[in-house]
Write a structure and sequence with these properties.
Layout: H1 2-8, H2 12-51, H3 58-62, E1 76-83, E2 86-93, E3 96-103, E4 109-113
Antiparallel strand pairs: 1-2, 2-3, 3-4
Length: 120
Amino acid sequence: MSDIEEEGTVSAAENQSGIVSHRAAKMAVIILGALIVIALGLVVFGIARNMSGSSTSAATVATEKPAILTLAPGATIKRLDVQDNRVVLQVQTAGGVEVDIIDTQTGRLIAKIRPAPQNP
């Protein structure tokens, strides 16, 4: 009968290591739970920030005054392309062909590329 009792008993060292591993698992669960709560809070904050309209939206840009761009007298548009929120115009002027690049969101002229004047 003494053999059975010895097999069923747990030594103090084994009991202590079991307590330590149980505490470590508990701490891991608590830390991971806190991280989940923080992440959820950040998601809610991000959604609330986007819904508040703090960023520039298409409606905000649409309410601004439209840009008015005019061509020089006698100039004609030869080609028009749209690429990456830009309008690229190839314009024939009295001085030759030029390329105008316009931002589609603001209507602002970004660049005007002209041929260099030739010296006689």
